[in-house]
Amino acid sequence: MNKNERYYYPAVFTYEDNQEIAVTFPDLDVATSGVDEADALNSARELLGIVLYGLEEDGEAIPAPSKLTNIELDNNERVVLVDVYMPSIRNANVNKSINRTVTLPAWLNSTAIEHNINFSQVLQDALKNALHISQ
Q1: CA 92 to CA 57: how far, in whole Å?
Q2: What is the DSSP string of 23-64?
Q3: Alpha carbon 30 to chain centroid distance?
């Protein structure tokens, strides 16, 4: 599957009195919101990246974006073209940390804490060494 560096999708911003701005992506059937236009746009961009990254990772087809002129709007709606730069999204997920539970003898745990050992760093170093990774 060919992965694009940048995607552009239309988003519908819906304005209601005393409410956050609702943002929907008609082509992706997902939605978010923001307290103002800048926040709504940032939320839309973040959501777009997450959804498209998930589709890429699952090997699913990425739908073609609709043309802005084909989006039907109500009086309180505006269409906005939202873009996302995928290399940033992909790289952020490559280095994403996860939690693992490990079991240690109590004496070893106490000694390591006494010596201010960073358990995560030691485990990362040991795994890289065991896997012959030099990063």
Answers
A1: 14
A2: EEETTTTEEEEESSHHHHHHHHHHHHHHHHHHHHHHTPPPPP
A3: 14
pLDDT in tens, 76-130: 999 999 999 999 888 887 766 777 788 889 999 899 899 999 988 898 888 888 8
**Selection from 34, 57, 55 nearest residue 45 by Cα:** 34
Contacts of 66 (CB under 8 A, 6+ apart): 10, 26, 27
- Between the alpha carbon of residue 28 and those of residues 13, 23, 63, 85, the distances in Å are 15, 12, 7, 17
0.85 exceeded by the pTM? no
Query: How many DSSP H helices and E strands does the chain contain?
Result: 4, 4
